[in-house]
Every structure is written in C-alpha cells, then in structure tokens.
Write a structure and sequence with these properties.
6 strands; 6-stranded antiparallel beta sheet; alpha+beta
Length: 178
C-alpha cells in the first residue's frame, strides 16, 4: 500500500507533521489528494468544510474537476467533507502551525462563515485553495504547492534560456570562416 492510500483515514502517519490523530476539529486544514494535485479545505465542524469551487460548474462536478485549477474566479462553498472527498483520500494537515500561529477557532469559523457563497478571485500561483484556507486559519495566505510550481516554472525557464544561449554559441562557432 503506498503512502497516499494510507491517508484515506483522517490522520497522517508522517512523523514530520504535527500530530493530526483523531477526527478533524473546527479550524483544521484538510488536504485532499486529487489525481493531479492537492485540494485544500477548512473543517467547520459537524462533517462540514469550506472550500473553493469553480464559478461555472455545479457542485457535484466542481468537487473533482481539474478545470478548477485553471479558473480565474471561484465560489466559497460549505459542503460535507465526505461529499467533497468522494473516492479520493485526505488527511488533517495543519502543516504551517510550527511557524504560523493559528487564530482562535471562533475567529476562524466566523471569518469562514462570512465568505460562504461569495465569489472570489482565484489564481493557481497567487490565490489558490491552499492560500484561501491558510488565510482563514492564520490570517496569512501560504501555499507550498504554489511555491513549488513557481520554482518548477523558474527552473524550466532557466533551462530553456541556457539551451538557447548554448544553441546561439554553437551556431556562431559553426559559421566562423576560419
């Protein structure tokens, strides 16, 4: 059984993460493992989460859509955790607690409830679902997923530039008359 399959329970066996054992508690970050990316939600209590979904899709389709990654707008929805997760796996993952202080749970929940059914801007790199839930929990939007994506884009850009320069040097050396 691979590590992702082990995460079908609410807890993670990863020793590097804060102890997430037990049921999710109000204000917890929920990491949902989609086939091509991780979706993030915030646990409200009584089985409900708050999360971002694409504006132009019905709720059922929005839960597993890759289209959500490319949207420019999103709607804040309160949904049952089990319905959003579907057949995917998930875990409680308050991974930023070691360097960000969570707001009081009552404030997290109040901030979340005010946003339900609101349309918000969405940007994969600067304002994604992980930014959204960490903004609610910590008062600051954070996303390792976006940071990794930006790093990968930078690496590809640097490699393409290097190959272009090398190609230019190689072309010039072949065109020398001597």
């Amino acid at each position: 059984m691979d590590k992702q399959q082990q995460n079908t329970t609410m807890a993670s066996n990863d020793p590097d993460l804060p102890d997430p054992s037990g049921d999710p508690q109000p204000g917890d970050l929920i990491e949902i493992f989609r086939p091509a990316y991780q979706h993030w939600a915030l646990y409200l209590g009584d089985g409900y989460i708050i999360n971002l979904t694409p504006v132009d899709e019905n709720q059922a389709a929005a839960m597993s859509s890759v289209k959500s990654v490319f949207s420019r707008k999103a709607v804040v929805r309160m949904q049952l955790l089990k319905e959003v997760v579907g057949s995917d796996s998930y875990r409680v993952n308050n991974k930023y607690d070691h360097n960000h202080t969570p707001l009081p749970v009552s404030e997290i929940i109040q901030r979340a409830q005010v946003l339900i059914d609101q349309e918000v801007s969405y940007d994969l790199l600067g304002s994604n679902c992980e930014h959204f839930v960490t903004l609610l929990r910590y008062g600051e939007g954070v996303s390792e997923q976006a940071t990794r994506a930006i790093g990968a884009i930078s690496l590809v850009t640097a490699a393409a530039s290097a190959f272009s320069v090398l190609g230019l040097i190689n072309t010039r050396s072949r065109n020398r008359p001597f």
